């Protein structure tokens, strides 16, 4: 067997690639998207809450939030998934029973919360200080000015970055195979990895890679287009003033 045949048999065995396409389409891709969507929802809620704590005036509020962000951003994703998905049930903490899929979504969501908090924080801090000063001058309290004027503008500025995080979650979901998902819960990598071990060839993993590319490449271009559109529609000084005035009337 020459090198090309060996290469083809290892990576480009069409029969093996086609054999797992039905499972990828029927089970792998839907589970990957669902797992990623749940993780992103958790990350959005947690990330915004953490961002507001990071910007709080009180150190008592800032320090725990900073510790959380530093820990979850500093740990390898695979370690966090394993500690939460395997560690919590072993320690007797079983909010989801034996449902590994739920623990996987929780682990990814907690990780995304740390990353999204920094995205939210940077967006909120990018809002000109004059926006807050003008809102306070019109009689808004600090909390009301943040909720009605500063935070909405900051969030809008980082929407493309938040959307791009969904792509990172999709790729990161490949690590949940460590938790031993049930056959109907397997995502793309789990299906491809199982087939690769059974068939003793890497062609199923190539098929899994193609599935990831089908999901992520169009999303990447969509996020870039969305980013350009958001930048073109960024509010000018007149729009910002109108927002503050409207908030003051609420």
Give a written overview of the molecule.
By secondary structure, this protein is mainly α. The chain has a single domain, classed as MetI-like fold (Orthogonal Bundle), CATH 1.10.3720.10. The protein contains eleven helices and no strands. α2 crosses α8 and α7 packs antiparallel against α11. It is elongated. The N and C termini lie far apart (77 Å). The mean pLDDT is 86.
Total domain modules: 1
**Beta strands, count:** 0
Question: Looking at the structure, what is the overall shape?
Answer: elongated
Under the CATH scheme, which class?
Mainly Alpha
Compact description:
With 250 residues, the protein is mainly α.
Q: Main traits of this protein?
A:
250 residues; mainly alpha
């Amino acid at each position: 067997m020459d090198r090309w045949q060996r290469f083809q048999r290892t990576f480009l065995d069409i029969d093996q690639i086609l054999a797992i396409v039905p499972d990828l389409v029927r089970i792998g891709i839907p589970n990957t998207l669902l797992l990623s969507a749940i993780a992103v929802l958790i990350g959005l809620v947690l990330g915004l809450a953490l961002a507001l704590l990071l910007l709080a005036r009180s150190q008592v509020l800032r320090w725990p939030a900073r510790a959380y962000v530093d820990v979850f951003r500093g740990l390898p994703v695979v370690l966090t998934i394993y500690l939460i998905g395997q560690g919590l049930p072993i320690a007797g903490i079983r909010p989801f029973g034996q449902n590994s899929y739920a623990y996987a979504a929780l682990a990814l969501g907690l990780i995304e919360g740390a990353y999204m908090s920094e995205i939210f924080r940077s967006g909120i801090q990018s809002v000109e200080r004059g926006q807050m000063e003008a809102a306070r001058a019109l009689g808004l309290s600090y909390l009301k000015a943040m909720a009605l004027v500063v935070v909405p503008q900051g969030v809008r500025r980082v929407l493309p970055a938040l959307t791009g995080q969904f792509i990172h979650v999709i790729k990161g979901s490949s690590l949940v195979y460590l938790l031993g998902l049930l056959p109907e819960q397997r995502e793309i990598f789990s299906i491809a990895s199982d087939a690769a071990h059974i068939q003793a060839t890497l062609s199923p993993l190539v098929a899994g890679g193609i599935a990831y590319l089908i999901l992520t490449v169009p999303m990447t271009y969509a996020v870039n287009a969305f980013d350009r559109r958001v930048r073109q529609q960024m509010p000018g000084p007149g729009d910002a003033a109108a927002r503050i005035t409207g908030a003051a009337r609420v």
